[in-house]
Specification:
single chain, mainly alpha
Length: 386
């Protein structure tokens, strides 16, 4: 393999390599505490909202480096509405969930209208939304915390998948899920490669595919083994996986998904090709509103309360995860798997520094430097390619 190909491979997997190195570093510095089963479970629970919000934020960024500053406030507002309905009004839990998702969609449609059809800059619209919905959250909550959430609601998001297979200290259902995940991954990868070969498309060398598949399956199995040593698969992980898989499919396999990339790559050319770019912008922010509501569902379940400070700085976590995961600040570049790697990297850094007892102010400094480094890497890479 020549130097150019080596450089391309390194660039492609930079964040994966960084994630592995950072994990090993914190595992060493914490004396192995980083990878304790309970800490692995905590990593999922504490960052579920980041995975969900970052997935939606990617769609906004793809359209030209646009962002949504309001997501943290929307999470708080939707959570306030849901908490008020379930605790104060005693509304049926499932009806309350539908109302929360509906409120998220309405907010997304509201902001999407001004951005897509009136062409007010997304920064201004979402900055206004950040102030509006944070204020409305305090109005709904009257400045107070609503708690606790109903038991049947907590079971949906805070419980663990039932383990009918049992196991002596090891959750066998969790292990079976890990094996099935590896099998499904291998079938998808090798079937996809076979299909590309038949059509005459360029494919990765078989040796590279095998090595990558072995590493990914080993990581999946090790991850599921750690979960199996604690309480098994958290329900919130199932919800997060559903969001990731659905949006990964939309962005990579559907026509509307390719529109997001086209608009970010060259909006004028996209419009001239007959695509309604206004609708693409609208869909990006509509989805962001919906996923903000999803994040609100998992957030108030984890906190077991709806409070006026919920969602603070969530937008920064989501935006940072996207850029760290390879999304371009100029739009048109980025993938859902990359964003998830970025969110996981941020989560590992947060958890590792918490275990080490690093001062919260220094934690902010580290996160800021990591984000800046990721954007610098993107900008420098683009300049070299030009």
């Amino acid at each position: 393999m020549d130097k150019a190909k080596v450089s391309e491979v390194v660039k492609k997997y930079t964040m994966v390599i960084a994630l592995i190195l950072v994990t090993l570093f914190f595992t060493w510095k914490t004396g192995g505490k980083m990878l304790l089963p309970q800490n692995v479970t905590n990593l999922i629970a504490q960052n579920a909202y980041v995975f969900i919000l970052a997935t939606g934020m990617l769609l906004c960024i793809l359209t030209g480096g646009n962002i949504d500053l309001s997501v943290g406030s929307v999470v708080c507002f939707v959570g306030a509405v849901g908490g008020s309905l379930m605790v104060n009004k005693h509304v049926n839990t499932y009806l309350a969930i539908l109302i929360m998702l509906g409120v998220g969609l309405l907010i997304g449609a509201w902001q999407g209208f001004w951005i897509a059809y009136v062409r007010i800059p997304p920064f201004i619209v979402t900055l206004a939304g950040m102030l509006i919905f944070r204020g409305l959250s305090n109005v709904v909550l009257d400045g107070l915390t609503i708690a606790p959430m109903p038991d049947n609601y907590l079971e949906l998001f805070n419980n663990y998948v039932v383990n009918p297979l049992g196991g002596n200290g090891i959750n066998l259902t969790c292990m079976l899920a890990g094996v099935l995940a590896c099998v499904i991954y291998l079938v998808v990868v090798f079937n996809g490669r076979r299909g590309r070969t038949k059509k005459g498309y360029e494919t990765e060398p078989m040796a590279g595919v095998v090595v990558k598949s072995v590493i990914i399956c080993a990581v999946i199995f090790a991850f599921m083994f750690r979960l199996a040593q604690y309480k098994g698969i958290p329900n919130v992980l199932v919800w997060v996986l559903v969001v990731i898989l659905v949006y990964a499919y939309i962005t990579s396999k559907t026509t509307i998904g390719r529109y997001f990339y086209a608009v970010g790559g060259n909006e004028k050319a996209t419009k001239l090709s007959g695509i309604n770019t206004d609708n693409v912008y609208f869909m990006a922010y509509l989805n962001m509103g919906f996923l903000s509501a999803m994040a609100a569902l998992v957030t108030i379940a984890r906190l077991n309360s709806a409070n006026p400070t919920a969602g603070t700085n969530y937008e920064m976590d989501a935006i940072g995860s996207c850029f760290i995961g390879g999304a371009s600040a100029y739009g048109g570049t980025g993938t859902v798997p990359g964003v998830i790697i970025g969110a996981t990297l941020m989560g590992v850094i947060n958890l590792g520094m918490n275990i080490m007892g690093v001062d919260s102010n220094y934690q902010k400094v580290v996160k800021g430097l990591v984000l800046l480094a990721a954007v610098i890497f993107d900008v420098v890479s683009k300049k070299k390619s030009q």
